[in-house]
Amino acid sequence: MSNLGLYRALDEAGVEIEETDVGDRNVLLALEEKSWNLGAEQSGHVIFRDLAPTGDGLLTGLLLAELLVRRGPLAELAGAAWRRVPQELFSVSIEHFNDDEVQHLFNELLEFYGVERADVRLLVRPSGTEPVVRIMIEALDAEFVEVFSDRLKSLYAT
Questions:
Q1: How many separate domains does the chain show?
Q2: Judging by DSSP bridges, how do beta strands 38-40 and 87-93 pair with one another?
């Protein structure tokens, strides 16, 4: 569920991305399968497989501090590396959720705004902890994100 801006920046840098189901365990399984050393989730869990088998906040903090000593302020490094795009995340009760309605609205707005698929991302997934469906929309066009979110929220307003 990382931001589309990060996906675009990693693609431009030639970094391969593997999407997994949510959870450190799934990230670690993908890292082992690909023989990769770095994996993470948007929640902040970062796994350095060559150093530890799980996400470790202290390890991540120490490695980040070491990077900042060598390379400079985080704001400058991040600002030069990628641009975060507008993103909205919300939940819909499973009993009220209708995927066809969500996809129809998404496709209708894609056409209306003339947005390219590479410039927008819709992620729909059931929660692993609650009886809800998580819906995340992000796009380079902030108005697209806002209109989609407002219309979807009004569709599922109780």
A1: 2
A2: unpaired
137 CB burial (10 A radius; 0-12, 13-18, 19+):
buried
Residue type, 69: V
Residues 92 and 52 in one domain: no
Strand 120-126 with 87-93, pairing: unpaired
Q: C-alpha distances in angstroms, 150 versus 89, 105, 111, 145?
A: 12, 11, 17, 9
Residue listed under structure tokens 């431009």: 12
What pTM did the predictor assign?
A: 0.66
**3-state SS class at 120:** strand
Q: Which residue has the tokens 């469906």?
A: 133
Partnered with residue 38 across adjacent β-strands are 48
The string of pLDDT tens digits covering residues 103-158 is 999 999 999 988 888 889 998 988 878 999 999 999 988 999 999 999 988 888 75
CATH of the domain at 141: 3.30.310.50
Print burial letters for 11-38: b (CB count within 10 Å at least 16), e (below 16). Answer: eeeeeeeeebebebeebbebbeeeeeee
